[in-house]
Specification:
Elements lengths: L1 H4 L22 E13 L12 E16 L2 E14 L7 E15 L2 E13 L30 E14 L4 E14 L3 E2 L2 E2 L3 E13 L4 E14 L3 E14 L6 E16 L20 E17 L3 E14 L3 E16 L5 E15 L3 E19 L2 E16 L7 E12 L4 E2 L4
Antiparallel strand pairs: 1-2, 1-20, 1-21, 2-3, 3-4, 4-5, 5-6, 6-7, 7-10, 8-9, 10-11, 11-12, 12-13, 13-14, 14-15, 15-16, 16-17, 17-18, 18-19, 19-20
Length: about 425
């Protein structure tokens, strides 16, 4: 029982900045719609080609959770659209999906699967305060801190694994992963972006030392391919800790350990605009070895009127299309508070830095900051009035192949329609 409880986070129960009494019922479906009037002062996501525009945003939410004695499933699907007033050529349809599922094959063997998919041009998706989903702090994920110029992007992160319950206190897991980041056409007005494809896997052991604390060891292997010119293999070993500190609405998760990466980069071929008169010698690959310390921490406190989340992350990962392998660090704070007369507020802020150390792609830093505030008020019959402001900032330095700065302000005012969850049947 203790080992099964330690895997609660794999069942889709944690969905974001929800109060302690807002958890989705075990067998229910949640539907939502929204429409917003928005002004964005940098729709191209680049200060070099800065353009502001007014637009109409809209979209929906389909979320359901199914719980059965032998398995659980959680699905979140968010289609959105943007209609620009002056730039009709930028009108677009986006979609994003999150899936988590588990199945108890035998009393001691549990299969699990996760998938996160999105196909969109980089944009700021609207979400009601109660459905604000945050990216989990886990080892081996794609880099989410770097901004790229406006271009359609497909991302997918999938994981398939098995958890063997060794005893009431211990469990052993194995898993395989696949990650993908592809840009439509690769080409932007500032230069070419690099696609990323990764394969990996790993294993872990967890032991429940008490009813509130679980310790573990975890090994993660990653094979990352950057376009046709670069490859990096990353080995990571972590000590993990998970605890609720004796409180049911408190969670603390920590992992820390060494990372070892070997990369092999090949210089891009000479320009095809002015080809050399005679064949040239193929470029020689450049090999690099990197040691680092990876880790992350996530601390969340929930009550009926307030949610506070603090997170830290450091790992070797992809350069989000600008460069190849980077050392990425990020930290952030998110607060949700229920105020007077039903007014609800969310305040968030974050900081990140990705450091490239490749002699081929270039050495440099990509620093980013973000902040935002959202106010929400119920109007009755499932309608919510929502107003939000978001600020994004990015600065690049060093010798990077695609360097640009970003300052972006976005103001949105509109309405959500979100009726009560509809039960799917008895558990």
């Amino acid at each position: 029982m203790l080992a099964q409880d330690s895997n609660r986070q794999d069942l889709g129960e944690q969905t974001g900045l929800q109060y302690s009494n807002e958890r989705l019922p075990p067998n229910a479906i949640l539907l939502g719609l929204y429409s917003f009037a928005t002004y964005d002062d940098n729709i191209l996501n680049s200060n070099q080609n800065r353009a502001g525009a007014s637009l109409l945003e809209g979209g929906g939410l389909l979320r359901f959770r199914v719980s059965r004695p032998r398995g659980n499933m959680f699905l979140d699907y968010r289609p959105t659209f943007e209609l620009y007033r002056q730039f009709q050529g930028y009108d677009l349809f986006n979609q994003a999906t999150e899936f988590t599922g588990t199945y108890k094959l035998t009393p001691h063997l549990i299969l699990n699967a996760k998938d996160s998919f999105s196909y969109q041009r980089w944009t700021l998706q609207q979400s009601s305060n109660g459905n604000t989903a945050y990216a989990p702090v886990v080892p081996g994920g794609l880099n989410a801190n770097v901004l790229v110029p406006l271009i359609r992007e497909l991302t997918n992160e999938a994981q398939l694994g098995a958890n063997l319950l060794l005893s009431r206190r211990s469990s052993f897991e194995v898993f395989g992963t696949h990650s993908l980041r592809e840009f439509e056409g690769h080409q932007t007005t500032l230069g070419n972006l690099v696609n990323t494809q990764g394969y990996g896997g790993g294993a872990g052991y967890r032991y429940r030392t008490s009813q509130t604390t679980t310790l573990g060891l975890r090994y993660v292997y990653q094979d990352l391919r950057f376009g046709q010119t670069s490859r990096a293999v990353v080995h990571s070993g972590y000590l993990t800790l998970s605890s609720n500190l004796g409180e049911p609405n408190v969670s603390f998760e920590l992992f820390i350990g060494p990372q070892f990466a070997s990369s092999r980069d090949t210089s891009l071929s000479t320009s095809t605009a002015n080809p050399p008169p005679t064949p040239t010698t193929p470029p020689t690959p450049v090999s690099t070895f990197r040691r680092d310390v990876g880790g992350g921490a996530n601390f969340t406190v929930r009550s009926r009127k307030m949610v506070v989340r603090i997170f830290l992350l450091r790992q070797l990962t992809d350069g989000a299309g600008l460069v190849a392998l980077v050392s990425n660090t990020s930290e952030g704070l998110e607060i949700r508070r229920r105020l007077w007369h039903g007014l609800d507020a969310v305040l968030s802020g974050g900081n990140g830095q990705s450091t490239s150390f490749s002699d081929v792609f270039g050495r440099g830093n990509i620093r980013s900051q973000n902040g935002g505030i959202a106010l929400e008020c119920p109007l009755g019959y499932g309608f919510l009035f929502h107003a939000g402001y978001t600020y994004l900032r990015q600065r690049t330095s060093g010798n990077l192949p695609l360097a640009f700065d970003v300052d972006r302000n976005r103001v949105a005012v509109g309405f959500f329609y979100q009726p009560r969850p509809h039960p799917l049947g008895r558990r």
